[in-house]
Amino acid sequence: MHHPSPEAALPQSDLAQTSRRGFLKQAGAATAVSALAGVKLPYVHAADDSTVSVALIGCGGRGSGAAVNALSVKQGPVRLVAMADVFENRLDGSYQALKRSGVSSKVEVADDKKFIGFEAYKQAMDCLRPGDVAVFATPLAFRWVHFQYAIQKGLNVFMEKPVTADGPSSRRMLKLAEEATAKNLKVGVGLMSRHNRGMQELAKRIQDGEIGDINFLRGYRMHGPVGSAFTTKWDGKGSELMYQIRRFHSFLWASGGCFSDFYIHIIDHLCWMKGSWPVKAQALGGRHYKTDADGNPYVDQNFDSYSVEYTFADGAKMLFGGRCVDGAVPIYSSYAHGSKGMAVVSKANDCGLPSSIHKGQTPDRGNRSWVSEVPGDEQDPYTNEWNDLMDAIRNDKPYNEAKRGVEASLVTSLGRMAAHTGQEVTYDELLNSTHEFAPDADKFTPDSPAPVTMGADGRYPIPEPGRKKEREY
Ligand SMILES: NC(=O)c1ccc[n+]([C@@H]2O[C@H](COP(=O)([O-])OP(=O)(O)OC[C@H]3O[C@@H](n4cnc5c(N)ncnc54)[C@H](O)[C@@H]3O)[C@@H](O)[C@H]2O)c1
Question: Does the beta carbon of 256 sit less than 6 angstroms from any atom of ligand 1?
């Protein structure tokens, strides 16, 4: 396939920007040098007409949102050309919603480019050319399967968080991350805090020592039940595997449970503020309510309350509280404490602006020495993460968030495993552990046995802290 020069691949409006033009000249020169040196040319530019094509794999809530973000990027023409899901109604619903959205003119998915089933991801990616982008927004169990194929095809990737739930798939994903870098593929991971402009400025200030040595971090996500975290008994009709995929927050193999799926953002951005990953964790957790309001037993694998104490190599601690209980105090925010002051990292929710720095250890307005100010068009980190990825694709900048995404997923799983087993667990123990939750995720058919099967009482194996110590279930 013919690869146009970086400049030819960009629309005129981008070329009109002086700073961009300077960069492009450098990029063009670098590409020429690489070619002369016999270095493999990067898969940078997608189509001869400079349009980047996108395939959406996993057409649920987030996948549809990510598609809108992808089609709204600042840099150059983009179109959605293929969609894949295991449920036809999810794909149809997503397609209809996209066709009603503000980006409808860029949704060019013909009926024969809508693919259903466990092989649909291949068919959708087969519609792309090297340099285009595949979006992965299925439950995490399929990340490595889909990533492997994208790398084989030379595709750039945007994959939703979390990206792994156990040690073996983390090791596999780390290897794939290296392969993607070796092929110069651009990979974004949906940990959007990292693209929150206020948090970026805060991280810089913290690393410059503005609040001194960080010795304590704390984060909370506590609210009522959300998503599919609590599940009543399967009615036995159809496929048990498909029932579990529909209710993926309930099953550790599919999502890492509510802990991994809901809590990763705050855990990730607090570690970013600290500038390192924790080395170990010990934790509490349990389940208060075992039935729904009508008295039907819940059969999922989650606890409803978690409290994790993470330890960093320098002895600093990070506390994370997670709860899905109605009527208990809701707290959903994060903080970093240092020897010279403290910071509000996320004021509300997973990464809500503004971030701020305060003298002393309380987040009072009177103590405030800095507050983030973010321009209106950069306030949405979901938009920023796509502009950043597309900028890297169009201008051939190094960009691969996969390793960091695996590390954040591992650290999150570390807290979950510590709570579920009642043991202190180290990062290395988890990374090197052998319990893989869904080793056959690349071979599933709708009739495959589910990775966990219902017992005679309709229940699934659950964590039992202090009794099941080596594995979570
Ligand atoms: N970054 C964020 O803030 C954010 C927010 C929400 C969800 N997410 C992440 O996005 C992912 C999806 O979450 P969601 O809330 O959109 O769930 P969802 O159930 O709405 O969507 C998931 C979709 O994937 C489909 N699917 C499942 N297995 C598939 C397979 N093997 N091949 C193709 N399609 C498959 C499902 O049928 C469904 O349509 C999760 O990993 C979640 O953690 C991220």
Answer: no
- Residue ranges of the chain that CATH labels 3.40.50.720: 6-192+383-400
48 pLDDT tier (thresholds 50, 70, 90): low
Task: Give the closest residue (by CA) to ligand 1 atom 31.
Answer: 118
| Residue 441 CA, closest ligand 1 atom number | 31
140: CA distance to ligand 1 center in Å? 8
Ligand 1, atom 40, residue with closest C-alpha: 139
Q: What is the pLDDT of residues 329-351, one digit of tens each?
A: 999 999 999 999 999 999 999 99
3.20.20.70, 3.40.190.10, 3.40.50.720, 3.90.950.10: CATH of 6-192+383-400: 3.40.50.720
Beta bridge partners of 310: 281, 318
Q: How distant is the alpha carbon of residue 219 from its chain centre?
A: 18
- Cβ contacts of 395 within 8 Å, gap of 6 or more: 6, 20, 23, 24, 27
CA dist., res. 384 & res. 290, Å (int) = 40
Residue 33: count other Cβ atoms within 10 Å of its Cβ.
10
Q: Give the domain 194-378+408-431 fold.
A: Dihydrodipicolinate Reductase; domain 2 (3.30.360)
Protein residue closest via CA to atom 13 of ligand 1? 62
Residue 139 Cα to ligand 1 middle (Å): 5
Could you report the per-residue pLDDT of 118-137, keeping only the tens digit for each? 999 999 999 999 999 999 99
- Separation of CA 180 from chain center: 17
Q: pLDDT tens-digit profile of 74-111?
A: 998 999 999 999 999 999 999 999 999 999 999 999 99
Q: What is the dihedral of CA 351, 353, 354, 355, to 10 degrees?
A: 20
135 lines ligand 1 (CB under 6 A): no
CB 250 within 8 A of CB 352: no
- CATH 3.30.360.10 residue ranges of the chain are 194-378+408-431
CB of 192 sitting under 6 A from ligand 1: yes
For residue 384, which amino acid is it?
N
